[in-house]
Here is the input.
Amino acid sequence: MAKQKKHPSGTIALNKKALHDYFIEQKFEAGVALAGWEVKSLRAGKAQLVDSYVLLKDGEAWLLGSHIAPLKTASTHVIADPTRTRKLLLHKRELGKLFGAVQQKGYACIALSLYWKKHLIKCEIALAKGKKEYDKRDTERERDSHREIQRAIRNKGKED
Here is the structure.
């Protein structure tokens, strides 16, 4: 009987800046077309999505601005480009929704996270609307007040 391989699990990279800068309207799960050295680097957790975004062109979706640092041992025979454009794999109807929404005013398509789903690497992308400066401050204020309330509830029983 063949030995069962343990699949890696969890999040590889998060784009926290996107959650700060945008209102998330709708999320999609997309596959990512990767080279072998990129998969090995992602297993080691060497990815960043800070300034990444999704470009919709010619009926296809492309991930731009993501950085996958090459491993010294994995990419000896290949010239590795850490910021290369990677193709996102989506269904036609999902691409249609994205194209229609991005052509509307104020919508952007951004990458939120890279994660493992069984043995595959998936990218969570989202349709988002940009936040104004006062919206960002408002969100921060709400988060701080919620944190204070939780802290007060947690410490209520310990004051005795």
Summary: Residues 11-131 form a domain with the Small Protein B; Chain: A; fold (CATH 2.40.280.10).
